[in-house]
Write a structure and sequence with these properties.
Layout lengths: L2 H12 L4 H12 L2 H6 L1 H5 L2 H5 L4 E10 L5 E12 L5 E7 L5 H17 L5 E7 L8 H15 L8 E5 L5 H15 L19 H18 L9 E5 L3 H12 L3 E7 L2 E4 L6 H10 L19 E4 L11 E4 L8 H9 L4 E3 L8 H8 L4 E3 L1 H4 L2 H15 L5 H25 L6 H19 L4
Parallel strand pairs: 3-4, 3-5, 6-7, 6-10, 10-11, 11-12
Antiparallel strand pairs: 1-2, 2-4, 7-8, 8-9
Helix pairs in contact: 1-2, 2-6, 6-17, 7-8, 9-10, 9-15, 9-16, 12-13, 15-16, 16-17
């Protein structure tokens, strides 16, 4: 049994109740075998034993009172996974599915994602099983304040700088930051995704979706192709999906389908994104309401219940932007059979391991989320830089920096894949390129 196989077996044994974390660890560690063949000094230093263990796990209760005066209690998490190259950086997710396994898988992926940006930020993740859906603004504010009462003990501009994720947008970040400021009397950058009124960055809202399209555009360009005239499926209709769709449309593509947890909208003539934005960003409604925006004689779209069948549709480019494991083996087979040429992940680990392996064995360009959706955290780091200098860059300047970062990520993962003998395999390229930087930093700092 090789060193990597031995560590992976140990991970599975010690974390048997954490399927998402085991899935992420398996995908990452298996691709690092060739690295350890070239760098036996990593094994001698026990690098993987340390790499797979978080530096710190914080779990805490979050008590709050709803509008009817009832006491509610949720569970809060922050996993500070690896700070070898910089302060912990990673989002907060508020969703009923949140548990330790999901937060650890997200934090583990975040280490490599942050490394790939080329910026000095380590990997972490956090959140709660609190569900913002159906809650009043007052209830969300009370929850966020209680959550920050505990989290504030463990974060800081040079220690850990969380951001938003699923269920945590500008409203939630505002409430969280307000409570931090109240308790610490320090107006510095401890959260990114902040409002422009108090130090946030232009283009942060668009960053993950735009970045996803920029790296996909570079993959197309390297093959003499472009988004012009392409049919694109974007799963999800949250922040990442919306702005991925927006940038794809700007580059000449037709987005034919988008979804939420209830189902998907399909229109061969193209989705009207302004309606999606109003439903999701203003009304916080369901995507099925899209049909209400059309007169019966003008309606060409249809709503289909159940979001998983969105991958049955024919497209040139698939951008899964909803949530983890949304695209399984059967869906992968349908996409390949229907002639899809590019699958690029906007969500974190939206493809199952079986789907990922199927794509890698097929004649398809597959860009994993740790590379393809790194634009969000990269722009968070740009926000940190602006806050530190008390500056505010223009939208165009931030967007230009973002595009360059995403092009560099593509080139770096492409080069790493070629160097280690896996040309075209961007899972291998992403994991190797991201890991090498962190590994060298850990080696330099000794056994800690």
């Amino acid at each position: 049994m090789s060193y990597v196989e031995d560590i992976l077996e140990n991970v599975k044994e010690k974390n048997a109740d954490q399927p998402e974390f085991i899935q992420a660890a398996t995908e990452i560690l298996e691709s690092l075998e060739p690295v350890f063949e070239k760098h036996p000094e990593y094994e001698k230093a026990g690098l993987l034993e340390r790499f797979v263990e978080p530096e710190r796990i914080i779990i805490f209760r979050v008590p709050w009172i709803d509008d009817e005066g009832n006491v509610k209690v949720n569970r809060g998490f922050r996993v500070q996974f690896n700070s070898a190259i910089g302060p912990y950086k990673g989002g907060l997710r508020f969703h009923p599915s949140v548990n330790l396994s999901i937060i650890k898988f997200l934090g583990f992926e975040q280490i490599l994602k942050n490394s790939l940006t080329g910026m000095n930020i380590g990997g972490g993740k956090g959140g709660s099983d609190f569900d913002p859906k159906g809650k009043s603004d007052n209830e969300i504010m009370k929850f966020c304040q209680s959550f920050m009462n505990e989290l504030q003990k463990y974060i800081g501009p040079d220690t850990d700088v969380p951001a938003g994720d699923i269920g945590v947008g500008s409203r939630e970040v505002g409430y969280l930051f307000g409570q931090y400021l109240r308790m610490n009397n320090k107006h510095h950058c401890v959260l990114t995704g902040s409002g422009l009124e108090y130090g946030g960055s232009l283009a942060r809202t668009e960053a993950t979706g735009y970045g996803l399209v920029y790296i996909t555009e570079e993959a197309l360009k390297q093959r003499g192709d472009s988004f012009e005239g392409k049919k694109v499926i974007v799963s999800g209709s949250g922040n990442v999906a919306t702005y991925a769709a927006e940038k794809a449309i700007m580059l000449g593509a037709t987005v034919i389908a988008m979804s939420d947890s209830s189902g998907y909208i399909y229109d061969e003539n193209g989705i009207q994104l302004s309606f999606i934005k109003e439903i999701k960003e203003v009304k916080r409604g369901r995507i099925s309401e899209y049909l209400d925006y059309f007169k019966e004689e003008d309606l060409t779209a249809e709503f289909v219940e159940g979001s998983t069948n969105i991958w049955d549709l024919k497209c040139d480019i698939a951008l899964p932007c909803a949530t983890q494991n949304e695209l399984d083996y059967e869906a992968a087979k349908k996409l390949v059979a229907n002639g899809t040429k590019y699958v690029c992940e906007g969500a974190n680990m939206p493809c199952t391991l079986e789907a990922t392996n199927y794509f890698l064995d097929s004649d398809i360009v597959y860009l994993p989320g740790k590379a393809a959706n790194a634009g969000g955290v990269a722009t968070s780091a740009l926000e940190m830089a602006q806050r530190s200098a008390r500056l505010s860059w223009t939208f165009e300047e931030v967007d230009s920096r973002l595009k360059n970062i995403m092009i560099n990520i593509y080139n770096n993962i492409d080069d790493a894949a070629k160097k280690y003998g896996f040309e075209g395999n961007y899972v291998m390229g992403s994991n190797i390129a991201g890991f090498i930087k962190v590994a060298n930093a850990m080696m330099a700092q000794g056994v800690i």
